[in-house]
Write a structure and sequence with these properties.
Blueprint (H helix, E strand, L loop, with lengths): L8 H22 L5 E4 L1 E5 L2 E4 L2 E5 L2 E2 L7 E3 L2 E3 L1 H13 L4 E8 L5 E7 L2 E2 H7 L4 E2 L5 H10 L11 H8 L4
Helix pairs in contact: 3-4
Amino acid sequence: MRFRRRRSRSSGITSLIVALGLAGGAGLVLKPSGRLLEGRAQVTDGDTIRIGETRIRIKGIDAPELEQRCARAGRTYACGEISRRALIDLVSGETVRCRAAGRDRYQRILARCTVAGRDIGARMVEDGWAVSYGRDYDYEETRARNRSAGLWEGEFERPQDWRRAHVHGG
């Protein structure tokens, strides 16, 4: 005589729910694309904010590092700090909405962010306090350069080049 172990239907459903829950949770950790984050933002530097405990790198822009200096009219100035201040001015007292588009190598959320419907990345590049990273904001960068806005008023090293030369001991 052969005995068959009967599996209850409810345990099968429970297993399925647990598996889906784990897969869904892993998706949030590994692939945050499309996730909406919103709230008051704290500014870290010219291209990074924090909403709650979530660090967000504004996708498509690159701003000077906080320690970076630029030149204007023969004098150096703290362009990294000014870039940070420009971003603070854009988000201060406002609700920031960010749509996640992945993660960077530091595990920050990469996102397009807006304030009152205006694209923060576009504004930072057009005002000249960040450059286009990739080709996302080439139009805004050209406008800033043509108007000698922000960084384009003087001389500066692109943030990516500055990091290579200074952060990694170059």
